[in-house]
Amino acid sequence: MNSLLLVTISIVRFFKGCRIFFRCSFRYGFVLAVCLILSACDEPKKQDSLQQVLDTGILRVGTIYGLTTYYNGPNGPEGFEYELAAGFADYLGVKLEIFPYYTVNELFPQLNNAHFDVIAAGINVSPERYSQFRFGPAYQNVSQKLVFKQGDVRPRELEDLTGNFMVVAGSGHSETLRNYKAQHPDLSWQETNDKDSEELLEAVLADELDYTVVDSNILALMRRRYPELSIGFSLSQSQGIAWATSKKGDDALRAALIEYFGKIHQNGTLAALEDKHFGHVRQFNYVDTRDFIRSATEKLPQYQPLFEQYANELDWRLLAALSYQESHWNPRAKSVTGVRGLMMLTLNTAKDLGVTSRLDPEQSIRGGSRYLATLLTRIPDRIPHPDRLWFSLAAYNVGLGHLEDARVLTERQGGNPDMWVDVKKRLPQLRQKRYYKTTRYGYARGNEAVIYVDNIRRYYDTLVWLKEQQPELMPIELQEEQNDVQVGDVSNNDETDNNSNQRTSTPDAAKIDGTKSEPIEGKVAETAPDEGKADKNGAIKGKAADTPEAEKQMNSNAPPNESADLQQGESNQGL
Fold first, then answer.
1. 326 among known catalytic residues
2. Active-site entry in 81, 198, 326, 518
3. N or C, fewer C-beta in 10 Å, the chain?
4. Rounded to an integer, what distance in angstroms lies between the CA atom of residue 457 and that of residue 460?
């Protein structure tokens, strides 16, 4: 009995102890769980930089206003950096938000404070910047040029800088000058946050400054507007241009940048964009640029109403640029091949277009406009703007048949026959026997077609700028031609002078009538039937350029066909 009582008491005490244990365990376990939850709230898990962009669905890009970066054009946002940023947003499948600022100095603090994800502003990767930020791959190379006004004494080294010298504050230019200061203690300059590089160049032209420094790609564009801008010397060697990301985050977004630039470099998109914005301004001819601006003021107003009247769906300024390239706006211009007038139409093309007198400005402009519009319709619909326009201009010069030959060569060599940047590399091959003997239409001066298109693009850009400026922003009155002309190269060779008698215009380039040449079909054709085939010397059978007696007796005032000394600029060599 006593034993049973002791066992019962022990069992009761055991369960009582267990109840107390579990009650305490639950209580302290609950407290511990709450502490862990609160600790997790205090230290949230960090989200990687790329995932944050994907989750928000927005890519925030900081940039600066400028000719090569970002600006609002007639059709919306434009600029080389803007188009690259838009492409990156599409690559990620997110929306693009642009945050434009006025100076580079304003961008870097915003990046460090995570107000945007990346800076795309044409920034050169200097050692100082590289130590503070992460950069993507270099996609373009530029050098810094010391600029002065044509006619002033040319400075050839830092010791020659004796006048007013100003650069943009916080720019790579000011950083470069600071690095030179130790070796050149007398070097002095001013810095400004109130003006950008373009405004400083205009100040040099207005004699408000003696010198400034600008990147070579910006200078190449500005010299089309202001040919009086000259290069003293290069302040730096070629430097890479790249996008910047913050060092505070991880490398996920930067890795995506590397993949994106690798892709567009591989598929040709980067080369096409670079050619669109800079390809036509790498070659600079001081006299040609000066003469064009003068002609736009003195000759163009006489024909502008006709260009506007017959442009139809085309931009009248493009039609005017084409006409200047063809005839320098000379209604009696004549080529050795028999093409004549403002738009330099062949006799057969003029007849097909209902032009009875190629020397009549109105008929010539009307016919040229219709001819270009016809060529545009014969370019495959899949080729986007602006490439289809460049193809059409090339066909105006060299003929649709030869253009098709160049596209065939492009495809054979692994290029894209629908991209102008690829086809323009093959057009010069039409002069080489080992290539043209395999084509349908044979020999052609394809290199002239490339120069032809580039010239028209430059003239068009200049006309757009001239017509959109306020009167007070129009270029300064051009000086009379000087015997000793010193012009700096926009890229690598600062000692190059341009020949004052040279032009890049090629008004006498042979054409094939657009109504008689083979159409460019959706698939590049390589068949070569006997009809229309070139003979062994490259001449097109049955091609003639008869000229009416009335036109034969007219004296031509067309400028001679002389080639300029062309200089190659810097491009996307960083990848």
1. yes
2. 326
3. N
4. 5
